């Protein structure tokens, strides 16, 4: 895992696990070739005590990708297509109901792919699809095919999770890219692509970044919609659907360098930024060569809920409200329900701040008022409104119909903000905190699971080495559960600002 210091007890424990595993017979070591195709009737059961984080069941012919059971976070199970050299999951099934790693789960193929957990039932399936075989292509596309080249009724490329790879078409009718923490999405409209925050289970999704294809003509009704595709030459190309007519491209930093042979991905990260990364042979880590949003304060939740981001050489987080949290950020737990439920009685306190603005105000609807008081009043009167930001210069009043996230400091007297803060009883009723005993137990359990994960990583890697020449199934690098990205990490060289 990422921790620099290792606990000697854990090290000893790991060594013991490793030795124990090394003495077990390894499947595939008897000269069996890796599985390249699944046929009807296939089943594989994940073993609940498997130490690795990834159990492959199907390999791409180039040996770079595999499909199998993936352990997510400390205890969840998912199906994933993994880029083996980096251990990065390029695609995940992401069932609505999360499966538990500690229970046996079965993956079967019987005209459709199904993930089943005994006594729980089907957790995930390729609905309404009938096919004959399953294969993983050299591109990392997981496909269900019909015999005799009669078609491909299902492919993972048409059902993305948080990542796009080379050659994968992303269109208006594709399901959106959703970040791992499920708080952000990327969607295409007819002539533009946009990033959205997801609130209330997707009922409200304010846009915070938009990119319109330069040569698309929004007023031309007969022009087909735009779609996007990552190109190995180092750009994200925008084309008109039904052909390859280019209408724009987002060039990455490596575009001018003529970098050939790199594997590329574009991922909607948990901080809400859309980044492109590449991996070359012998790489130790993914290198980012593009990000949609360059300034840390322009990310919609850079300082968490009720945070105030102060831009500058080293951007800083403050709180809009008096924070009870000992660490800052976040200033306050995220709110997940609106303020319309309460019936009688005011459910919120009010905070007013001047010198504040919103990084994405251009994407928000606004009303025009002569005074800040009128703007405030418009928000106060509506229970779906969480706050309003007023620009005394233009008279624009931006209304937030979603829980308050990070606002940005702007040294301008005329920019004022009005924010509702759910009253404390309401907040604690939402039940975010855990009693200290539970917290300690969780910490201990996480440590044990984390050490198992590292052990599994070594084991999986050794296993893969034995089966193939290259690659590893070491899961430590990219599979750490989503953590809060503070401003320091946004500042790190891996995410360095474009100049
Ligand atoms: C996939 O990659 C392997 C190894 O690089 C190669 O032999 C095979 O021809 C490729 N398959 C396709 C369909 O390109
Ligand atoms: C509208 O788009 C279609 C298809 O791209 C094109 O053939 C046509 O010339 C366009 N019309 C105008 C007025 O630009
Ligand atoms: C993506 O779209 C292009 C152009 O329409 C097409 O040639 C290509 O086969 C598509 N790729 C995939 C993986 O579907
Ligand atoms: C880029 O690579 C191509 C093919 O490998 C080569 O023909 C071209 O000259 C290269 N361009 C530059 C600027 O290096
Ligand atoms: C924040 O704290 C200050 C001083 O401790 C107090 O005057 C103010 O009313 C507090 N504001 C809120 C919203 O609780």
UniProtKB/TrEMBL annotation:
User: Matching InterPro entries, A to Z?
Assistant: Bulb-type_lectin_dom_sf, G-type_lectin_kinases/EP1-like, Pan_app, S_locus_glycoprot_dom
Q: Where is the signal peptide?
A: 1-31
What's the protein here called? Answer: non-specific serine/threonine protein kinase
The keyword Disulfide bond is annotated on this UniProt entry? yes
Keywords tagged on the record: Disulfide bond, Membrane, Receptor, Signal, Transmembrane, Transmembrane helix
The gene is LOC123397565
Q: Decide whether keyword Membrane is in the record.
A: yes
Kindly give the membrane topology term recorded for this protein: Single-pass type I membrane protein
